[in-house]
Amino acid sequence: MAGLLHSQKNSCACIYNWAMLEEPTRGGPTATRRNPLGAAMPVITAARIPRQPTGQLPTEIDLTTLPDVLQQVIETALEGARNAPDNDEYFRHMATAILAAGIHTRHGELARCACDCMCDVLYDADDPDGHLFHNGTREIPQCPACADDHRGTTF
């Protein structure tokens, strides 16, 4: 019976608690196994979780490259942060989104690129290469790549 290693338990506790495996599955990203009630459920194996040292985590990631389950967790967390009544709840939601995205942030905040190209990149909100521009009364965040390619301007 192969399970997740101790170091993997610590670094991906939410995924570990959600889908602990008793043995490796075959079938790649769409592998499923049966739960006790007989319904198929998605399985995340340790082999499919990117393993990088903490100092080498990326500072941005394309949301569309993540599995659907993680995309839903991130969407829910970002929506919760947007509607949070206080700072504590805001940062709890941000921490959930950051853990699910697997990126490094300096001060615990993510931003999502919202320019016209629709690239759907999540990045460190404190990235000096990121860009904010104003569209009327709204601030529009732009990821570093978009800020280089087609920098938004205030109008």
Question: Can you offer a commentary on this structure?
Answer:
- The chain is of the alpha+beta class.
- The protein has a domain at 1-51.
- It is built from five helices and seven strands, in the order H-H-E-E-E-H-H-E-E-E-E-H.
- The protein has helices at residues 6-11, 13-18, 68-82, 87-101, 144-149, and strands spanning 32-34, 40-42, 60-62, 110-112, 121-124, 131-135, 138-142.
- Strands 3-5-4 form a three-stranded antiparallel beta sheet, with helices on one face.
- Strand 1 (32-34) and strand 2 (40-42) form a beta hairpin.
- The protein is globular, with a radius of gyration of 18 Å.
- Residues 1-41 and 43-51 have low confidence and may be disordered.
Helix/sheet category: alpha+beta
Question: How far apart, in Å, are the first and last alpha carbons?
Answer: 61 Å
- Please bin the fraction of helical residues: 25-40%
Largest sheet: 3 strands, antiparallel
* Uncertain residue segments: 1-41, 43-51
Rg, please? 18 Å
The order of strands across the largest sheet is: 3-5-4
Can you give keywords for this protein?
155 residues; three-stranded antiparallel β-sheet; 5 helices; alpha+beta; 31% helix; globular
Structure at a glance:
This protein is an alpha+beta fold. Helix content is 31%, strand content 17%. The protein has a domain at 1-51.
List the helices and strands and how they pair.
Blueprint: H1 6-11, H2 13-18, E1 32-34, E2 40-42, E3 60-62, H3 68-82, H4 87-101, E4 110-112, E5 121-124, E6 131-135, E7 138-142, H5 144-149
Antiparallel strand pairs: 1-2, 3-5, 4-5, 6-7
Helix pairs in contact: 3-4
